[in-house]
Design goal:
Layout (H helix, E strand, L loop, with lengths): L1 H25 L7 H8 L1 H18 L5 H21 L22 E8 L8 H10 L3 E5 L3 H7 L8 E5 L7 E5 L3 E7 L8 E7 L5 E7 L19 H11 L5 E6 L8 H5 L6 E2 L22 E5 L4 E7 L10 E6 L1
Parallel strand pairs: 1-2, 7-8
Antiparallel strand pairs: 1-12, 2-4, 3-4, 5-6, 6-7, 8-10, 9-10, 11-12
InterPro entries: Endo/exonu/phosph_ase_sf (IPR036691), Endo/exonuclease/phosphatase (IPR005135)
Protein name: Endonuclease/exonuclease/phosphatase family protein
Organism: Mangrovivirga halotolerans
C-alpha cells in the first residue's frame, strides 16, 4: 500500500509540473505555434485539472515534505495564470455590455441565433425545429453547402430576407432576417473561399444597425481547406479597420475559431470599440457539443456601446457539433 501511494504521489507531482509548464507557455499565445494556440484554448481545462489535483493531494497527503510545497505551488500557479484570463467571464467583473431595462421598447430589440450547423451533419430537422421554436429576428447559419441550403428553405417563409454564399469547403454562410436589408455586401477578408457579410438592417422602428457576420479560418493548417497557419488573424484585423470608420450601432457575430479570452481588441485593433456580451456573465461554451472535455467558447457576439443585453443563452444540443448561441439585444 505504501508503494502504491508513492507511485500515485509522483504521478500527481508530475501532473502538477506539466500543468504549470503548460500554463506558463500558454501566455505566449501570439507566437505562431499551433501547439501554443491549443494551450490557449484549454484554459478552463487547465484550471479545473489543477483544482482537482490540489483537492486530491490535500485529501491523500499524510505528512508535509519539501516536494509537497512544490506540488501545491504548481497547482496554485496554474490556477492563478488561468484565472487571469478566465475571470473576465465570471460575475466577479463588471459587465461590459449592461443589462437592458424595462425602458427599452419592443421595437428597439433585436434577437439573433448563430450556429455552425456542421456541413457533414445530415440531420437538419433538430436545428430547424429549434429555430422555429425560438423565432429569432436573425438566424446566422455557418458551414452551409447546397444540401443545407435545400434543407433550410422551409424557414424562408418566416424569414423573407436572406443572403447566402454556399460552398463545399465548410465556409458557406447564410443569413436569414425578418428585417429588410438596406444594404448587404459580401466580403472576402482573407481567403477567396471564406465569405463574410456586411449588412445594414432596418428595424421596425426605422433605426438602422450594422451587422458583420464572420467565420474566419482557425490558426491551424488544413491540407484541403483554407487555413490561417502562421498568419496573425488577418480577417479580424481587416474587420476591425472597417468598424473603426463606421458610426452606426454595430453587431459582430460568428464562429471566429478563437476563444479570445478578453482579447477582442488584440484581434481587431478596435481600441475597446467592440464589447463582448459574455464578459461578466459566463463562458457559454459552444464547441464541442459532442465532448465536454474539449469544450470552449468559439461562437461570439460583440457589440458597440449603443447596445444593452436582454438575454444570452447557449441553446440545447441539436445534431451539430456546435451549440447555438442566442442573444437578445436592445438599443
Amino acid at each position: 500500500m505504501k508503494k502504491l501511494y508513492k507511485i500515485f504521489y509522483w504521478i500527481l507531482f508530475c501532473f502538477a509540473i506539466i500543468l504549470t509548464i503548460g500554463s506558463i507557455l500558454s501566455v505566449l499565445r501570439n507566437i505562431d505555434s499551433q501547439f501554443l494556440k491549443v494551450l490557449d484554448f484549454a484554459r478552463i481545462q487547465f484550471f479545473l485539472s489543477a483544482l482537482i489535483g490540489l483537492i486530491i493531494f490535500l485529501l491523500i497527503n499524510r505528512s508535509w515534505g519539501k516536494y509537497d510545497y512544490f506540488m501545491i505551488a504548481g497547482f496554485v500557479a496554474t490556477m492563478t495564470i488561468q484565472s487571469f484570463y478566465l475571470i473576465h467571464y465570471t460575475p466577479i467583473v463588471p459587465k461590459k455590455v449592461p443589462d437592458a431595462t424595462t425602458d427599452n421598447v419592443e421595437d428597439d430589440r433585436i434577437s439573433l441565433v448563430l450556429m455552425n450547423v456542421k456541413m457533414k451533419n445530415k440531420n437538419a430537422q433538430p436545428i430547424i425545429d429549434q429555430i422555429r421554436e425560438i423565432e429569432p429576428d436573425l438566424f446566422l447559419a455557418m458551414e452551409v453547402n447546397q444540401w443545407w441550403n435545400d434543407q433550410l428553405k422551409v424557414i424562408e417563409k418566416e424569414y423573407p430576407y436572406s443572403r447566402k454564399v454556399l460552398n463545399e469547403l465548410t465556409y458557406g454562410m447564410s443569413l436569414y432576417s425578418k428585417f429588410p436589408f438596406k444594404k448587404i455586401n459580401i466580403n472576402y477578408l482573407q481567403n477567396k473561399n471564406v465569405p463574410s457579410f456586411e449588412s445594414i438592417i432596418t428595424l421596425d422602428n426605422g433605426k438602422d444597425i450594422r451587422l458583420y457576420t464572420i467565420h474566419p479560418v482557425p490558426p491551424i493548417h488544413f491540407e484541403h481547406l483554407p487555413d490561417n497557419e502562421g498568419q496573425r488573424e488577418i480577417a479580424m484585423k481587416k474587420l476591425g479597420e472597417k468598424i473603426e470608420n463606421k458610426e452606426l450601432p454595430t453587431i459582430v457575430a460568428g464562429d471566429i475559431n478563437d476563444v479570445v479570452w478578453s482579447y477582442t481588441d488584440g484581434l481587431t485593433g478596435t481600441n475597446d470599440k467592440l464589447l463582448d456580451v459574455r464578459i461578466g456573465r459566463g463562458f457559454y461554451n459552444s464547441f464541442n457539443a459532442h465532448n465536454f472535455l474539449t469544450r470552449w467558447p468559439l461562437d461570439h457576439v460583440f457589440v458597440t456601446k449603443e447596445f444593452m443585453l436582454n438575454k444570452i443563452e447557449r441553446l440545447p444540443k441539436t445534431s451539430s457539433d456546435h451549440f447555438g448561441i442566442y442573444v437578445e439585444l436592445a438599443l
